[in-house]
Fold this sequence. Notes:
The structure is a homotetramer. In chain A, about 45% of the residues lie in helices and about 10% in strands. Chain A has helices at about 5-10, 15-20, 30-35, 50, 55-65, 80-85, 90-95, 95-115, 125-130, 135-150, 165-175, 200-210, 220-240, 280-290, 305-315, 315-320, 340-345, 350-355, 390-400, and strands at about 25, 70-75, 120-125, 155-160, 180-185, 215, 245-250, 295. The radius of gyration of chain A is 21 Å and the shape is globular. In chain A, about 65% of the residues are buried. Chains A and B meet through α3, α5, α15, α17 and α19 of A and α3, α5, α15, α17 and α19 of B.
Amino acid sequence: MSEAKKARTEKRGFLERLAAGEVIIGDGGYVFALEKRGYVKAGPWTPEATVEYPEAVRQLAREFLRAGSDVMQAFTFYGSDDKLENRGNVSQKKHTGSAVNDEACKIAQEVANEGNALVTGGVSQTPNYLSGSGKEAVQEQFRKQAEVFIKNDVDFLLAEYFEHVEEAVWAVEELKKTNKPVAASLCIGPEGDLHGVSAGDCAVKLAKAGADVVGLNCHFGPDETLQTIRLMKAALDKEGLKPYLMTQPLGFKTPDCNKQGFIDLPEFPFGLEPRIVTRWDCHKYAREAYEIGVRYIGACCGMEPYHVRAIAEELSEERGCLPPGSEKHGLWGDGLRQHTKPWVRARARRDYWENLKPASGRPDCPQVSKPDSWGVTQGDKDLLQKTEETTDAELKDLFKK
Amino acid sequence: MSEAKKARTEKRGFLERLAAGEVIIGDGGYVFALEKRGYVKAGPWTPEATVEYPEAVRQLAREFLRAGSDVMQAFTFYGSDDKLENRGNVSQKKHTGSAVNDEACKIAQEVANEGNALVTGGVSQTPNYLSGSGKEAVQEQFRKQAEVFIKNDVDFLLAEYFEHVEEAVWAVEELKKTNKPVAASLCIGPEGDLHGVSAGDCAVKLAKAGADVVGLNCHFGPDETLQTIRLMKAALDKEGLKPYLMTQPLGFKTPDCNKQGFIDLPEFPFGLEPRIVTRWDCHKYAREAYEIGVRYIGACCGMEPYHVRAIAEELSEERGCLPPGSEKHGLWGDGLRQHTKPWVRARARRDYWENLKPASGRPDCPQVSKPDSWGVTQGDKDLLQKTEETTDAELKDLFKK
Amino acid sequence: MSEAKKARTEKRGFLERLAAGEVIIGDGGYVFALEKRGYVKAGPWTPEATVEYPEAVRQLAREFLRAGSDVMQAFTFYGSDDKLENRGNVSQKKHTGSAVNDEACKIAQEVANEGNALVTGGVSQTPNYLSGSGKEAVQEQFRKQAEVFIKNDVDFLLAEYFEHVEEAVWAVEELKKTNKPVAASLCIGPEGDLHGVSAGDCAVKLAKAGADVVGLNCHFGPDETLQTIRLMKAALDKEGLKPYLMTQPLGFKTPDCNKQGFIDLPEFPFGLEPRIVTRWDCHKYAREAYEIGVRYIGACCGMEPYHVRAIAEELSEERGCLPPGSEKHGLWGDGLRQHTKPWVRARARRDYWENLKPASGRPDCPQVSKPDSWGVTQGDKDLLQKTEETTDAELKDLFKK
Amino acid sequence: MSEAKKARTEKRGFLERLAAGEVIIGDGGYVFALEKRGYVKAGPWTPEATVEYPEAVRQLAREFLRAGSDVMQAFTFYGSDDKLENRGNVSQKKHTGSAVNDEACKIAQEVANEGNALVTGGVSQTPNYLSGSGKEAVQEQFRKQAEVFIKNDVDFLLAEYFEHVEEAVWAVEELKKTNKPVAASLCIGPEGDLHGVSAGDCAVKLAKAGADVVGLNCHFGPDETLQTIRLMKAALDKEGLKPYLMTQPLGFKTPDCNKQGFIDLPEFPFGLEPRIVTRWDCHKYAREAYEIGVRYIGACCGMEPYHVRAIAEELSEERGCLPPGSEKHGLWGDGLRQHTKPWVRARARRDYWENLKPASGRPDCPQVSKPDSWGVTQGDKDLLQKTEETTDAELKDLFKK
């Protein structure tokens, strides 16, 4: 066994690994993957499947582990109490947020122990913030989730998927009280957060708030995410701040996004298929992220286990090992040498796949879209948290816009 | 409970259901879905995961059941002995074809019993046929698989994924000896089989060979598959033949395919993402298939559980029920009324999704490709079955072509 | 001077040239080119510019001559009396059809004499036919135009741009009475004429009616036109008929056309720019047409002088000469060796241009369109000839459809 | 006659018109239009056609006048002596630059007098500058051309098509010595000039050098040109400078250009067809330019007479008149009400054309390209002026790059 590999086979801490210069590979996107599998509802996107269908969540976690993930992220996305009872969502009443988050931690812990992975619990933006409920109310939401994470003794905490750096800073402050390492990632692009704070300034604020790791997740594909992390790194460097960097981009191509990211694309969320990235896009992403200096390299919505495996394969030399799932995958298409048809065997090579420009099979479709840009921002009445389901009359008003 | 629904809740036979005019919904594609999850190797595409990772296969089967599948297809694709030892594949030696197929049946049976689904075992084209080994050798392969299926008492047998109707007829003849109902589907398009037999003539040959159900699977997307089944139906009608019809198309857009289907596309198999169909494409497919008169309406490679759910949702009125998985899916995007952002709530309506022309986010890519057309056909030395792995020297020769 | 070139420098007859196996290069599209220059109105598309702006017509004719055209086609398209007074067109009243056609012949003759070109006068489909006025009324229109052509002693007559082979046959019959050679071309595609007569049958009918040359012009781009001429040739061969063949396709890409051709495309006529063919498309067209056996190789709407020059350059070896206009054009981009920028000089080679896949710069646009398909055919009241301008009320009705 | 129209019918001076707030419409692109017509050679792009084929140049000028151009730009582009003898160009030896420029002025003057148009003579970037010959040598080139312009008493002088503001400033300084009004336009985009001077700074430098009009021409399509003029205007406003503004963009879509503009696109110059703008793109361009405050609104390479007519039609209300060429063009497609087919008549309306997303008919092509980016800049040996033609050996070296 190589030295590098040996180093990885004992379970060492999150910051310890980063301090040693190791690459930490994140996992992929739970909500999108489980929506396609039938266990998460698009719209609310809440994680009550942890109590309803734990075996389905566990299976996906195992697939990510097998793909090379070093972190099992407890499936707690949008697991705050206020989100679980937002607009007709009955999950809070039925299961309680505590139970949902607790079960998520247990599944993550169980699967992590099957390999050598770390466990994290995450908080994300809240309806309370969008409704303008103020710092205390918002932090209260985070506190409730963090209590569950601490009870389950996760390895580190994650504040992710924030559109406003202000709320992310509140989350970091709250999470830091636990004395666990804290990673913080925003869902912003090169234009900065929704209040107009530049990407660079966002990074600086998070670092100053005490985040050990700073970066990005969701809302933009690999290209735009890397473009943004470059802006963040430049600003951090200028300030002499040295947090570790993380990126967990979408598994979708998003060259046409504006500030709000893929939520604004007309294809969100049920027509994104033509935008799905290939495994080769993930190779490219992993390499570039590594070269920029990102060391927590993961993935978000749309990224399936095979995408994560591609990241792990690209960095296999740096990490000293291939992921377990590569048992079923020849590097750079090498498995095709076993194909029956000779012209498919002729594709068993790196340059073929690196240079492929994949067609969409949709000649009647455009290649880029015009994002919706309603300009609705924090505090707008259309964003207010409410427990009642949206009525048909309310919908009708929206359809007219 | 509606009459229609009640009728479906007792386990009735395959032909009984078809004779009653019921729609039978097939399942989706195992090899592609499990490749993405890390349990099947692209290249050989063989199903040894049934013995290696049964829980992963079982989970996928459950997702299809939940999506509305009335048939659990035992994961026996390419499970013939000669394929399991083709070009360096060690699965035959390690597991034996019998064990792989047997375990596939057991998983299918177990999951089918969790609902009200039928079980089928399938055979498909063999390296022996491509190598010109003759009828007896080829049928011997089918016989070995069929023995396992009979031992497991599946509800019906399937001869699927044949490029040459001759071999499919041999399969039907062999399978008919079991006295089980037999469905037969070719992987051909509007241009007919690889020996130049027209689609219509193919259908007639299969019906005359005794197939109870005749149709298509794989190699072409929904549009081309429906175009081809129309040709088949016209020829059958002309001959006064009345087998039931089945279609299980790819989950990819393939307007640019020639005779050989998606195998020839330069994107096969690792760059097909931009071609993945949306759930709305599946609604359209299901409706059109139904209107043509197809009653076994299923799906093949690239079709994930949510695609099957869309088929079941489109036909929910005809079937008298929604699939269990619709618990997590508002019809026609209705779940979006629970979304935080008002402009996403504005997408909670049928006409929005029916009219969407989804962009690929890839302006530097073409929309259609030029298929490889090597013209290598049955009997060519490049197609011969061989147990040794393809050598680097052989590959190098192919790369030059 | 080469023998081949010498042979071309004395003015020899139309059929004489064809009988000698020579290639005859047609000219390009007058109505579209002059519309862009400001002398023809899109909508009526009538040729009264011959009397109003003769110098503009003459200049374009000279450019075609210079580009290598062996035929100067008198600009008489849609010059029948009934078209010149259709739907508010005042040209008949103001100039008379006779004068318009006569001046067209004089210009064509003048320019033809500046080189060694032939002159032809053409008739095309009439509002009378669409209105169901009957054979005699329709032939009367052709007779009036033919009288002018005979008075001007053109080298041959052309019956072109017919959607219905029946009307084209009537035209051939009428024109044959003059004892001039007659060429006949339909504006149909692979699906045949608008009455459902197959392309092959159309060709046979025209040949049997006495047309010396049979072929196609307008409505489809080079690819579909060549596909159709192949069908025509096969049918003629089968019948043992040997007319010469001609093709004068559009200068637009039209893979998405149905039976009615580019008129049905939503881009017709003011959004066709992205479909304009390159000079390299014309090289390919000329070569393929020649190989099929077409010897009257010309061009129609959208084909500018430089497109015709490309045809002449591609066939320069067969013809023994380059066109005069090649003075200002290096073959296969060779003129770029004089460019200031080195990377543009690097494009001075054939394989660069042959392999270029030109981008549209329009990522928000589709690549193919859905043709309008109103199914309005000959005899429909919406097609009736009428002298009054379309009213706003009539338009409003149409906008609703 | 309206007041606005009356004002335009007496020939008033260039600055007088601008001072009165009038819109001045420029003409279109001579070199590209005449290349397509067979009178200019792509590669050298020099204007010796003025002496060789004056009637062809005159005809194009008349078409622009008819389309609404208020300025007849003498066809002197690249008419400097050093360009006329660059890399094998024999035009300087054969005709002399003086004669070429002189004849250009005479043609422009003749046509201008047929309407009420102004005449200008222009200088543009020189091989001398690229070769690093220094200010005096460069200005000597401009002086020689200016002498001809002054002799012909043009209405104003134009320094256009400069990639480096430094050379443009030298041109302005030289031209100002004549006491004629001077307009100056760079061929740069939003990234600024090739020496890295920002677009805003470029504008300020030109204004400070004394240019009465400052702006842009060529190298970028309407969208990018307008984006750049906005940057220029902002910088001028900030400095309190108030030159008039001009824009003469390409008639091509160029969203994928980098700093060097369309020269770097792989489609330049023989595969640009799919990028050609429609007349509706010109309406949009004219309106936006007007709203920004541009008052000299013209066009460059790729812009044909019908494009200029569209600019004039869009601004017909502001100008109090339609251009003469609108005699043959119904506003917003209105001429289609005279079309034979009802579904084409149904397109006789503004909103149809404003909303059309025109397809390219090229599904196998990308929508954007990757520009060549050789990074070769002023002073590089590959850019040196030389009179000898590029040799095959030199070309071969370039092909390898």
